[in-house]
Amino acid sequence: MALFGKKTAGDTAASTTSSKELLATYELAVKSISDGVMVIDSSKNATLVNPAMLQIAGWGNDDAIGLNYKSILNLLDANDNQPTDVDSPIEVAFSTKKLFECKSCKVLTKHSGERVPVFLAVIPSGDNLVVTVRDITKELEEDREKTEFVSTASHEMRTPVASIEGYLGLALNPETATIDERAKAYLGKAHEASQHLGRLFQDLLDVTKLDDQHIKIDPHLTDVVALARNVFEGQAERVHEKGLNYIFLPDQNVSGERTIAPVLYAKVDQDFLRESVDNLIENATKYTPQGAIEVNVTADDNNIVLSVKDSGIGIAPEDLSHIFQKFYRADNSDTREIGGTGLGLYISRKRTEDTGGRMWAESEYQKGSTFFISIPRLSNREADELKKLEATRAAMMQGEDTQLNPFTGQVSAKAIPEASNYRPVAAPETPPAQPVSTPQAQTPAVTEAPQVT
Ligand code: ADP
Description:
Layout: H1 13-32, E1 36-40, E2 46-49, H2 51-56, H3 69-72, E3 75-76, H4 89-96, E4 100-108, E5 115-125, E6 128-135, H5 137-172, H6 181-211, E7 219-223, H7 224-234, H8 236-241, E8 245-248, E9 265-269, H9 270-286, E10 292-299, E11 303-310, H10 317-320, H11 344-354, E12 358-364, E13 368-376, H12 380-397, E14 402-405, E15 409-412
Parallel strand pairs: 8-10
Antiparallel strand pairs: 1-2, 1-6, 3-4, 4-5, 5-6, 7-9, 10-11, 11-13, 12-13, 14-15
Bound molecules: adenosine-5'-diphosphate.
C-alpha cells in the first residue's frame, strides 16, 4: 500500500479529509517513536521536531518549531569538538544533497550540558532535510561490557592454557619424559590443540584491545625497507623448513643479482607494521604447499607499498572480499586441514589502518595471493626534520643535551623544538621513485554509507 496517494482531479471532500487523517496518523507515528526526528527547511529552520528529539537535545517540552536547527540540536564530534559549517553533518548534507551518517557524534544537551552519544542520519528530501538521532548510550555500554568480558576471559584462560602447553611439551620431549608411541600421538594432538587455543586467546585479546582503542600508537621515523628485511629474516628458518623459495626483492635487481636497496622512510608505529608484515609472511608460508614467497617494498613520491606474494592455494573470489572480517576463514578442501583463528588479517588490517596505512589483497584461486600494505612516504627532508626532532625529544627525556640517533649516529640537540614546529614540507629532495604498480583495493564486503565519521 502506498503511504501517500496522489490527488487526482476527481478527488472528493471525503478523500481530502482522509488525507488529513492520514497526515495526522503519520504525525502521531513520528511523535511516538523513540528516535529523535527533526525536519529542517531550506531556511535552516525546524518545521517538525518530535518529542524524542526534544528530549535528547535537552529541551523538555519547550516548543522548538520555527527555530534555527542550531539552537535546537547542538552536535559535537567524537572528540567533543563543535563542528564548523564546513564539516557539520547537517551543513554537508545541505550542500551535497547526499545522505550523511555519523556513528560517533554526540549531542550536547541544552540545560545539563551532558554529552549524549548518538547515531545521526541526515537525509535530504527535496529542499528539506530529515534529521534522525538515536541515543546509543546503552548500546555502547553493552559493547564495552562485552569487550571487557572477552578480554578478561581470554586473559584469565591464557595462563592455564600456557601451562598445559608447557607440560605437554615436556611430556613429548624425550629428554624430559619417557612415553610409548601411542601416548606420544595422543599428547601430540593435545599439544597442537593447546597451541591453537593459546593463539586464539592471544588473538582475542589483541582484537578487544584494538577495538576498544586500548592500544597506544607510537609512531616513529622508520626505514621501511630495513624493517621489512628484518621481519623477512626472522621468518626465514620456518619458510626454508617448508622447502619454499624465499626472496627479498629490494636486495636484488631484475636478473636476481644482489643490489643496494633504497632507503624509504615513513612515520609509523614500528611494532604495528612489524606485526602486520610478520602475519602476512606467516600466512603466505601456511597457505603455500610449494613454490615461492616474495617480499617486496616499492614506492612512488607519496606512498610506500610492501607486498607479500605467494604461489600458494589462492583465495576464491567469493572469499576474497571477506577475509579481513573477524573470524572469517575460507572453507574448502585446501584450507580445512590448515589451522587458524580467522583473526590474523582482521588484526593486521586494523593495525595497518591505525598507523595510517591501507591493506588489501589480490588472489587467483589455486595460483597464489599477494597482500599489500601501503603507507604514506616521507620525503628525505621530512625524514631529516623528524630525525632531529626525535633525537632532541629523546635527549630531553634523558635530561641530556645529546643523544645517539640510530639512523645517523651522534646528534647534538641543544634546543628543544615544540611538536608544532614540525611541518611536513613538499618533497623537492625526494630521490627518484621506484615504479609502483599499486593495484586497486578490493571493494569492502560491507557497503558503507556515503560519509561516515
Ligand atoms: P587464519 O588464522 O585463518 O589464517 P587470517 O585472518 O590470517 O586467519 O586469514 C583469514 C583467511 O584468509 C584464512 O583462513 C585463509 O582462508 C585466507 N588466507 C589468508 N592468507 C592467505 C594466503 N596467503 N593464501 C591463501 N589464503 C589466505
